[in-house]
Amino acid sequence: MPTYAIGDLQGCYAEFLALLERLSFDPRRDRLWIAGDLVNRGPASLACLREVEQLGDSARVVLGNHDLHLLAVARGGMTEKRKDTLSGILAADDRERLLDWLQSRPLWVDDGSDSPRRTLMTHAGLLPRWRLDQARDLAGEVEARLGGERAGEFLERLYGNEPACWRDDLAGIDRLRAIVNVFTRMRFIAADGTLDFAAKEGLDSAPAGFAPWFTYARDDDPRILFGHWAALEGRTPGAAVRAEALDTGCVWGGSLTALDLDSGARISEPSHLK
């Protein structure tokens, strides 16, 4: 039963179908892990959302920042941005069913192992100072709020860059926002865990005093799968942990890539948007 991990779809539906064909993917036998950002910027966000939802239990999906943006627009009163490609979803007859499904996705999935060397996936990565059990519990706090009666209030207040550094005593919306920012927006961090939200390009764009989150060592040794950072082109140079970058920038003219979790082989479908 092969398991493949795929990076950000971002509405690249044709490439997604072509990649599944390359893999000879059979949902009765095989499994997919998808690193979030199913939607936005690409031409077919609605088709991607429908396709992944219909895969049922054969696909495990984490929420990305663009997925949360869709939920904030649809259910939190946020305004669409100029470059958004979410209108098809917002106008769809089945939008509420699709949004319910998306809103119930987690921020973290793992392989079920109790070993510190287990494989886990989040959209943006894992804060080096968080223990694995702590990180999973923190993800659960956000997941519980998204599944609760006050989800709309949370989505309305979700966005913001503060607090930029995690503290265990954070509470309320500040605590939830800080958790979401780590799991869905993190790229460069300082030694104390402070996040930078401005630099989004390659490693040479790091602000002074900041470095990629995966270059900081951890006390444990999980295999961390993440998307979100297309400028890495699937590489993690200087990594101090077993980090696997999955976003290879399909929506920007790169490719859509699947990682075979057993063999480590990568299979890619070039972008059709060139």
Describe what this molecule looks like in 3D.
The chain has 274 residues and is of the alpha/beta class. It has a single domain (3-270), classed as Metallo-dependent phosphatases (Purple Acid Phosphatase, chain A, domain 2), CATH 3.60.21. It is 29% helix and 14% strand. It contains 8 helices and 11 strands. It has helices at residues 13-22, 45-54, 65-75, 87-90, 95-103, 132-146, 151-156, 172-185; strands spanning 3-6, 31-34, 59-61, 109-110, 119-121, 188-189, 211-212, 223-226, 242-245, 255-260, 266-270. The strands form 3 sheets. Strands 3-2-1-10-11 form a 5-stranded mixed β-sheet, with helices on one face. A 4-stranded mixed β-sheet has the order 4-5-8-9, with no helix packed on it. A hairpin with a 5-residue loop joins strand 10 and strand 11 (266-270). The longest helix is centred in the middle third of the chain and has 15 residues, at 132-146. The protein starts with a strand and ends with a strand.
Indicate the low-confidence ranges by residue numbers: none
Rg calculated over all Cα atoms = 17 Å
The H/E string reads: EHEHEHHHEEHHHEEEEEE
> Helix amount, in percent?
25-40%
Work out the number of β strands. 11
What structural class do helix, strand and pairing data support? alpha/beta
Assess the beta-strand content as a share of residues. 5-15%
Calculate the terminal CA-CA distance, rounded to whole Å. 34 Å
Tally of helical runs? 8
Superfamily (CATH H level) name: Metallo-dependent phosphatases
Please give the CATH architecture: 4-Layer Sandwich
Labels describing this entry:
single chain; 274 residues; alpha/beta; Purple Acid Phosphatase, chain A, domain 2; five-stranded mixed β-sheet; 8 helices; 11 strands; 29% helix; 14% strand
